[in-house]
Amino acid sequence: MTRIPSCVLALALLGVIAAGCATNPVTGRRELSLVSPEQETQMGLEGYKAVTVEYGIYDDPKIQAYVDSVGQKVARASHLPNLAWHFTVIDDPSVNAFAMPGGYIYVTRGILPYLNSEAQLAGVLGHECGHVTHRHTAEQITQQTLYGAGLGVAGMFSETVRRYSGLAQQGLQLLFLKYSRTDETEADELGIQYATAAGYDPRQIPATYAMLKRISDQSGQRLPGFLSTHPDPGDRETRTAELSKQAVQGKQGLIVTSRPYVQRMDGIVFGNDPRQGYFSGDLYVQPTMRFQIALPAGWQHQDTHTSLAAQEPNKAGVMQLSTADAGTLDPPAYVQQLVTKGAIAAANGAPETIGGFPAWVGRVQVPQQQGAPITADAAFIRRSDQLLIQGLGQSAQPGDANEAKILASFRSFSAVTDPARLDVRPDRVRVAKVPKTAPIEEVISALGGPASFLQTDQILNDAEAGETMNAGTLIKFVTSGKH
Known about the structure:
By secondary structure, this protein is an alpha+beta fold.
């Protein structure tokens, strides 16, 4: 009797016509999947376009090339060595790394200074490669689609995602996907396997997880921290230490490369970069575009490279600011163009002057793929010949207090003229030789490191409070910019 693959039986029972069977590159087993390898590649490509626009590529070609070179080395040792792998450092302060289908791997600039060797970096990248080769994302999409859950995102980020469509939207959502503990166990094992096969010493990897435990996720970040998306499957540090010991048996000359790695971190931006926009209480300042806007008091807010969002704590109101591709049209003409093109179904408003700039303020009806159009508050402000700012907002009921707050916020838009608000610089990591053997606190103080970053500096150097730093070794510490 011919054996029928279990995934074929599942298809028949579920009646899922569009699904198929795919071979898992790691296990070799045939599995039910709603996502083909070709779709994974396309999803990764479209997601890459959206991620790099939304969060930005860290502007340091040397760092980008270095991370890619380590990643390619690890990827060649994976179960998919011939896949077109892509490794990108995104310009975000969170401490995390992400994998998208099709071989698209991201690390945040925020995680890089916390690592202390190339072998640690290889372990992080190997872990993410493991999520790709084991098809964890495809598995989750399949499971959530079959059970009707979908890939949802919470809070203000949904407003950002809606600007994208299809695979690009799904790709952005994957950055917020939380893996299962089983997925994490498998990725931990594969990360050690791939890093070791690439010639790196996997005994460096457990220290990465010890470091991550010392970093608490910060609320209000644009992207989540590692432990939010990669939950600890249970005693991860001990387990990876045991796996690493097994992996190195009989091997010699494994790569660590600590000092050169630390030297590469000199000058890397640390934390939020105020040049991309910053908050002073509820006032948002964008020094590059030279504008500011007062957000409703007490509302939650966050920004990305392309948008600013604010949400009432009980979700009774939301607003978003972004740039519009309007050419040189004035605001009323641009609104009419949107109506003509069908981007909005109707518009009811009038021209105004906001902060000395031509504007249009009113309500628009935004068409939906299903159901009636959504009515939203809107403001279009011509900041310069090349820049038109678009504001959209919605409250629970038209005419309520939150709608008034949204419109008042739009009308608070003004130019930034105060040089102090424009002349901002980010905090950066500095690397120096320890001048003399002393406790870490004394060393950092002698080098001019601010006391406010002392706890962070200890974690950056994998050191405890009071730990002795030997003369001549390299130490990383954060220096203050100008905020």
